Every structure is written in C-alpha cells, then in structure tokens.
Amino acid sequence: MAQALQQSKLSLVTDRRTYRLQPYHFLREGHPDHRIGMGSAFGKPKARLESIITEAPLVKALSGITGNVEFTSTQTDRTGPLANHFNLLKHKGMVLQLILLAVLGTYALVDYVLLTNYLVIGDLPLWPFISTGLLLGVLGVQLGKGAPRAERFGLAALLCIIAFAATYPGLQRYALVVSPEPLSVAYDNTETGYFEHSHYPAIDQRESSIPEYWQSLPSEVTYTFFLHESELGFVLIDMAAVYEKSRAFYREDGR
C-alpha cells in the first residue's frame, strides 16, 4: 500500500502545461492529517487504493471545482531495467535469506559495539571467515532456487559478505566463551606504545588515539594487561582498564 500510494500520480492538464502530482501527499491547511499510519501503510490494506486516493484532499478539491469527475486508475507502463522486476517477498527462500541478512547484520553491528573495549592481537585464522562465507553463500544459492539468476546469486553474495562481517565479532565472542576469566600478564614496555612478551604477541599502540598517555608511562618497566586466550592463534585483550586510566590521565592533564 505504501509503495502504491507513493507511485500514484495525478496528471493535471492546463492550457499552459501538464502537471504531474502525487495527490495523496497534499495536506489541506488547517485540517487534520489524512494520511494513513505505518501499520496501515505496510499492513494488509483495509480499503482499495482508488477509494483512498479519491478521498485525498487535493483530489476532492479538484473534483469540486471541475464538477462530477470520474476517477479511474491505470497500471503504470514500466519500461527499462525494472520492467520485469522480481518481488523477493513472494519467494520463501528469498524471504528466509532477507531474515538471515537482518539477523547477521544486527548481530555484527551490536556485538561490534559491545566489544569495542577488546583488542585483537596476533594472527586471526582465515578458515572461520572462509567457512562461514562459503557455507552461507551455498545456502543462499540453494534457498534462491526458482528465482532469477541475478537475484539468486546477488542475494547469496550479499549473504556471504555479511557472514564475513559477522565472523570477526563472532571470533571475539568465542574467545570470551572459551576463556571467560582473563589472565593478568605483565608486558615489557620496550618502546612508547609498544609492549612485548616472550609467550604472547606484541601489543602495538604507537598509532593509537592516546599517544600522550603512552608517553607518560615509564620506559623499560612492565605493564599489566588482561588477556583472553582463544586457542586459535590470536589473543583478546580487555582494554577497559587501560581506557579508564587514560581518561583519568587526560582529566588530570586538563585535556
């Protein structure tokens, strides 16, 4: 219904030119808003489109001026690349893919925000990214059977990309699950913003946004970090304590 109202046009022919208007969106000044709400616009229509357009203030006003005018609707003549467009919502497999896209996209965004205090060091394994991408890509192709080739493979490719994006916070979450209690590890401050340990990957903060804080730390001393081991080759560092100390440093420094 919302799409149909948006696409509805009124051709107003005068002796000078022809105006093409969207009659439903015109409001009558000083009168209540006649437009339907979100629930009616996207829910099951309770009235025919023609009757809704006929009752629009602009159409009623023009009808009153010109007399008893009959209202008729004609299907828009669609040409070009969208002339034979495919409705994804009428294909169950495509609808399921859209749901998966929404779920994975929401998870990737939410967990990425929730895990901003955690820093990944070491080499992330590639096989989780490749596995999830291929798995959901193949699943998308299978679910898209019966749909046109462009929509079928295009949506499957998009699902594959979203799977890649969701794998990164997924690996972080996995490290927190397998190692819920962090390890307190003392790193050597070998250079400003650069810390080393004999058994764990180095922590490089030389390009961070708090260089003054790292410069304030004494050199050649140990600095404690809280680590979560993933058993997959990378380590997750909880930087919450570091950020809290840096905020206190900048407050005292007046920055």
Give an account of the 3D structure.
The chain is α+β, with helices and mostly antiparallel strands and 255 residues long. 46% of the residues lie in helices and 16% in strands. The chain has 9 helices and 8 strands. The strands form 2 sheets. The protein has a 6-stranded antiparallel β-sheet. Strands 1-2 form a two-stranded antiparallel ribbon. Strand 5 and strand 6 form a beta hairpin.
Secondary-structure blueprint:
Elements: H1 2-7, E1 10-13, E2 18-21, H2 38-42, H3 49-54, H4 57-66, H5 92-114, E3 118-122, H6 127-143, H7 149-178, E4 183-191, E5 194-196, E6 203-204, H8 211-216, E7 222-229, E8 234-238, H9 240-253
Antiparallel strand pairs: 1-2, 3-8, 4-5, 4-7, 5-6, 7-8
Helix pairs in contact: 5-7, 6-7
Q: What are the main properties of this structure?
A:
elongated; alpha+beta; single chain
Order of helices and strands: HEEHHHHEHHEEEHEEH
Overall, the morphology is elongated
Proportion in helices: 40-55%
* Structural class by helix and strand composition: alpha+beta
Given as residue ranges, the uncertain stretches (5+ residues, pLDDT < 50) are none
| Distance separating the two termini | 54 Å
Instruction: State which percent range the strand residues make up.
Output: 15-25%
Number of helices: 9
Give me the side-by-side strand order of the main sheet. 3-8-7-4-5-6
Q: Mean pLDDT score, rounded? A: 85
Rg over CA atoms, rounded to whole Å, is: 30 Å
Report the major sheet.
6 strands, antiparallel
Number of strands: 8
